[in-house]
Amino acid sequence: MAVESDQEPVAAHEDFVMVEHDAEGADRPLDDGSDFLAIISQYTETVSSSLRAISLDIHDNPELQYKEHHAHKALTEFLKDQKDWQVTPSAYGIETAFVAVYDSGRKGPTVSFNAEYDALVGIGHACGHNLIAVASVGAALATAHVILEKGLAGRVVLFGTPAEEGGGGKIKLLKAGAYKDHQVDISLISHPSISPDAALVCTAAYSAFKVEYFGKEAHAAARPWDGVNALDALITAYNAISVLRQQTQPGDIIQGQITNGGLRPNIIHAYSAGRFVVRSTTRARLEALKKRVYACFEAGATATGAELKLTPGGSYDNHMPNKALGRSYRHFFHRLGGEIPREDIDVIEAATTASTDQGNISYAMPSLSPNFWIRSEDKDGKQLGGPHTPDFEKAARTEEAHESAMRIAKALAATAVDVLTRPGLLAEAKREFDEMKREDQRALSQQ
């Protein structure tokens, strides 16, 4: 996921020892004296070196969407060595997806984690998916360890989700029934960036599509009136979109590329094409924006007489963080020495115009996708590039970044155990999720 931000990073995390640092009363989730964070932290430290080796292996062998064979093998072979874990490689007909399950044998909630491991063209793991993978694996293993040690009820499911970078691996798993088949109650994941630590990350909804215009060729000097100019249609639409931007809301983004502008300058162009992306803060707002953008393309066809063809591409829903899960996560993250703003500030500051297929998961079940800061700076402390830059690819390999990922693993596992041991938390998370869905349906019905 591309997380572009001008925000300065938080201070470096030099020490990840567990400290008592309670959040505001409303943020503190524990009410019955149960606390498993020490067990989680101690266990995570025992597997940290193994996870570090896997992270470096994935980082140093970058693979693109749906071709993550090396990462898939490294992760599934490691998980098969873990006692009582049932691992299904190449799950649901997706060659580089997997499902790993730990079942207590006692009826209870099912908590899940998503692991990502695909890379970017030309710049490798410049989105830090190697860190996402080991944070999720560490969290899943730590949660299972607490279940075993304390005799808790419930299940842990770890999904290996390929192709986050535009391929929508989670969406394919969702549509195939992976989350439904395993009766998942909540979904947890995390993401590194150069933005401050956050719990309630909101991402943008996006939709990509291809635009084509079909006109009629003619000699541009001798008989231009015989032609229908497909390039004029596309340029008219492009200019209309430029005018539309003045009347769009904050968070609405329209991006475009002309991929075919005709054959030669002395020909009335019979064909033109482009690729466009539309983003907005929610999927309901995205639908409204798409209607206005499509009208611009229709205007180009009307003005020139060219035939318009729109071909949908990939699309991701916006991520809707579950605040009930966020309160639990924030509490444990603070206990581990971190600092996240209070809820009302966090949900604003953590918003990003980047997109992820975890957004679609958040419309299927309560979801949380915290952000964690890693250092991308030169030797003098000057800020270097964030996700999707060569600087960040280097940052995602450091020991310090790994330690940050392990702290995230601990906080995610503690949140999952909180769900397993406090029925009221799961009920609250589901009530909030149901209300979010109702609001989404109301908004969609008004489009």
Describe this protein's structure.
One of its GO terms (molecular function) is dipeptidase activity. InterPro entries: Amidohydrolase, Bact_exopeptidase_dim_dom, Peptidase_M20, Peptidase_M20/M20A_hydrolases, Peptidase_M20_dimer, Xaa-Arg_dipeptidase. Belongs to the peptidase M20A family. The chain is α/β, with parallel strands linked by helices and 447 residues long. It has two domains: 25-202 and 319-444, Aminopeptidase; 205-316, Alpha-Beta Plaits (2-Layer Sandwich). It is 41% helix and 17% strand. The protein is built from 13 helices and 14 strands. The protein has helices spanning 37-59, 69-80, 129-150, 169-176, 178-181, 230-244, 283-304, 323-335, 343-349, 358-362, 390-395, 399-421, 423-445; strands at residues 85-89, 98-103, 110-115, 155-160, 186-188, 191-193, 205-214, 218-219, 253-260, 267-268, 271-280, 307-316, 367-368, 371-373. A six-stranded mixed β-sheet has the order 1-2-4-3-5-13. A four-stranded antiparallel β-sheet has the order 9-11-7-12. Helix 7 runs parallel beside helix 13 and helix 8 packs across helix 12 (399-421). The protein is elongated, with a radius of gyration of 24 Å. The two termini are 28 Å apart.
What are the main properties of this structure?
447 residues, Alpha-Beta Plaits, alpha/beta, 2 domains, six-stranded mixed sheet, Aminopeptidase, 17% strand, elongated
List the helices and strands and how they pair.
Elements: H1 37-59, H2 69-80, E1 85-89, E2 98-103, E3 110-115, H3 129-150, E4 155-160, H4 169-176, H5 178-181, E5 186-188, E6 191-193, E7 205-214, E8 218-219, H6 230-244, E9 253-260, E10 267-268, E11 271-280, H7 283-304, E12 307-316, H8 323-335, H9 343-349, H10 358-362, E13 367-368, E14 371-373, H11 390-395, H12 399-421, H13 423-445
